[in-house]
Specification:
alpha/beta; DNA polymerase, domain 1; 9 helices; 6-stranded parallel sheet; Rossmann fold; 2 domains
Length: 245
């Protein structure tokens, strides 16, 4: 990845922290959420559209449920909504324990960041009980206990993505500022959260189109992305200034 404006590549020494989203960024778990929601839609007598499914990516379970119900044209009571959420969470948990697939380049990039001694965080909208299934799987590949200094889950923040709270909370726990941090995301809500927190963002192509924005560099996948490329993402942010906070 070469800077398009001809400026000098970024300095890896300026980069102190990398904050990773989980679903669809590090591991291919988005398909699990989709499968569980399509199954629920069938039980409710309908079929979830591809557009509605894409609109749920990176959102909280309640937002995802609202999108699903609107797409199907159904109304559910609060107890029914909670039962639907529990069904989806249980289904996704089962699939996570059966198989877990890395996104292209993600395992290599995470290892490179860890080996370089940079501060790392996992910042996900997924609830802790599901995220821990993935975290434990990732940690098995590390002799020193795992690659993440901090993990922040969707049920541990005052507001979920696209609010900047999750990334601000993670940066505070890491002891780093947004000007030293790169966020890696695949969804519009995640990119919005990272930019609003003031960080540089590397956007990875996923199920949702993400429009260009100051401080955002977009790539097709993490394959071939290393520390020099992350430094370039940080340098690109510095040319436009931090996002509004």
């Amino acid at each position: 990845m070469v800077p398009a404006d001809g400026r000098e590549p970024g300095n890896p020494a300026d980069l102190r922290a990398v904050l990773f989203d989980m679903d669809g960024t590090l591991v291919e778990t988005e398909e699990y959420w989709g499968e569980a929601m399509f199954d629920l839609a069938g039980q409710l007598g309908g079929r979830m559209s591809a557009g509605a499914r894409a609109a749920t990516v990176g959102t909280s379970m309640r937002v995802a449920m609202d999108v699903l119900y609107a797409d199907l044209g159904v109304t559910r009571t609060e107890p029914q909504i909670q039962a639907d959420v529990d069904q989806i969470l249980d289904a996704v948990a089962r699939m996570m324990t059966e198989r877990l697939i890395w996104m292209p380049g993600a395992q290599e990039l995470l290892a490179a960041v860890h080996d370089a001694g940079l501060r790392t965080a996992l910042v996900t909208t997924t609830p802790r009980r599901l995220a821990d299934l993935v975290i434990r799987h990732i940690e098995m590949g590390y002799a020193d206990g795992g690659p993440f200094d901090v993990t922040v889950c969707g049920d541990e923040v005052p507001a979920r993505k696209p609010d900047p709270a999750p990334y601000r909370q993670a940066m505070a726990a890491l002891g780093v500022g947004p000007g030293e941090s790169v966020v890696i995301e695949d969804s519009l809500v995640g990119v919005t959260s990272g930019l609003a927190a003031g960080a540089a963002v590397l956007g990875v192509a996923g199920l949702q189109p993400v429009p260009p924005a100051p401080g955002l560099v977009q790539v097709d996948s993490l394959a071939g992305i290393g520390l020099p490329e992350l430094a370039d993402v940080l340098a690109a942010r510095e040319t436009v200034g931090p996002a509004s906070r």
